[in-house]
Each structure stands twice: as C-alpha cells, then as structure tokens.
Amino acid sequence: MKQILLILLILAQIVFSQATVALKAQATVEPGIIRLGQIAEINGDKALANRISNLEVGRVSEPGRKTRVTENAIKAFFIKSVANSKDVVFNGAKFSDVTARAGSVSADSLRSLLLKEVRLRMGENLQEGKDWKFEAAKMPSSLATPEAGGRIVVSLSPQFSGIGQEMSVIQIFDGNKMISKHNVPFIVRRFEHIVELKNGIRKGEMIWAKDFEMVWQETTFQKRKVIKKAEEAEGRTALRTLRAGELLVDNALETPYAVKEGDVVRLFAQFGESVVQISAVAQKNAFKGQTISVKNMDTGKNILATISGSGEAWVN
C-alpha cells in the first residue's frame, strides 16, 4: 500500500509540474509584441504557466496587420528558453492567426475625403453635378487605422487632368509614422457643349451658324478633337462631306487664313491707356494668333504683330 501511495504521489507531482497550452485559432492583440498568454489558454503548474505565458512569440507592429504564430515555432524557438519542452503539452489549434487591434475608416468616409480633394482641383468655374461627376467604384470597403485614432492623408496624382481615369493615394498615419498606403483609382466624368451639325455639308462648302447647334454631352473619353465653341466652327470649310447629326471635329474643317499676304490690316498698338490704329500690309499668310511681319504703310518699316482676327493685328 505504501508503495502504491508513493507512486501516486510521484505521478501527482509530475502532473502538477506540467502545463497545457491551447492555442486560439484567432486572436487580437495590441500592436507590438505578441506574448503566448495573449493567444493561448494556459493551465497547469502556476509558476511554469506564468513563465511560458510571458514568452514573446512574435510581433505585429501595425494596426490591422496580421501574422501567424505556429505551434511548431513556439516549441522549437521559445519554450526551450524557459522550460523543459516535455513539461509543456500543446492540445489546441496548430497555429494562431493574430491581428493587431485597430479602428477603421469606412468607404463612405474615404470617398468624402477623396471627393474633397477633387473639388479643390476642379475649381469653382466648373459646377459639380453639371460640368463634372465623380465616380470611385473601386474604393476599399474599409481601411484599418490606429484604434485610438490616426491621420488620413489623401493626395491626387501630380498628373491630375480633371477628366477620365485618375489615381489617388490614401495614406494612414499613426502619429508621424505611415502604417499603410493604398492606390485608389477614380473617374472624373466631364460634360461640355460641343458642336453638332443640323444640316449636311458638302466638301468645300463653308459652315455658317444656321448649320449647327451646341449640344450638351459627355466628353470624358472623347478621343477626337471635337469643336466646343461656335466661333471655332463658323466660317470654316469642310474638308469632306459631313452628315447632319454628326459631331464636328477640328480635322474635318479647313482653317481659313485670318489675313493673306498683301492684305491691308488694321494694326493696333497700345501706349499706356491709349490705343493707336494705323494701317499695315501683311507680309505673309497667317492664321489667328500667329505672329508675322507687317509693313507700316506710313513709314514703310516692318513690324512684328500678332493676328487677332480677320484683317487685324496688334503690335507685340
């Protein structure tokens, strides 16, 4: 009987000096060091349980980030540093997926922040909802932020054009440290008045105001150089036959010269608040906006002038 009691006592001491570890399949911790006691249920010998509970078994530094801690890694690299591995029994999950505790910012909030930046770039001259519309179909459903708050910075590409496919960068900061960066595409849809023909025009015919109308259409992905001002259409000649209902494009029209070589032009020059007009002769054919040499009819001297319209120019 005494021998039996002695054996039972020894067995009890062995059991008492052991600890069991049951890893949690999923665990959430504060950003930083991961300790075994945070991701597992530990029972058994109190002193042993305390030692292994405090073991550093990994790190997940940034809010919302995840890492996996495996039973094999804990056995191979960590348990041996504080206990005999035979005294620690694992009977839970084979690994624990650990997430750093975090807050989050919703897709709606991100969209509002991005739209605010787009509005600043589009300016006050273009009316939102009429001249342009914003779409962000690929906005993340949510982004992780520090649980106690953080800073969100939204920036647009330096190549922002205000029309079509654009790109933004959303950065999440914890204090001065950037913890994540996300590229988010979006679209700015543009709407403008463009010229549409009411009447068919034959090749070589001149276009007049009665032949077209201004229509309001989306021009976001319009690759052709459509004409957007009436004055850019009127008085020009068709290079090919044009159909009624066709959008008028610049390369379908011949641009007439504003002045031709030998034409007498009205030449204007400004002195302070006064404008002086004289007559001059164009030395070559020129389009509106082109700078050419004209000869002052009074002095015979050549002067550089910019053609401002049909038969007129301004001294540079």
Q: How would you describe this structure to a colleague?
A:
By secondary structure, the chain is an alpha+beta fold. Helix content is 16%, strand content 42%. The protein contains five helices and 22 strands. The N and C termini lie far apart (123 Å).
Overall mean pLDDT score? 90
Q: Helical segment tally?
A: 5
Strand count, sense and barrel status of the largest sheet are: 5 strands, antiparallel
The run of helices and strands is HEEEHEHEEHEEEHEEEEEEEEEEEEE
Number of strands: 22
Distance between the termini: 123 Å
SS-derived structural category: alpha+beta
Query: What percentage of the residues does DSSP assign to strands (E)?
Result: 35-45%
* Rounded radius of gyration (Å): 39 Å
Shape: elongated
Low-confidence stretches: 5-16
Helical residue percent band: 10-25%
Oligomer state of the chains in this structure: single chain
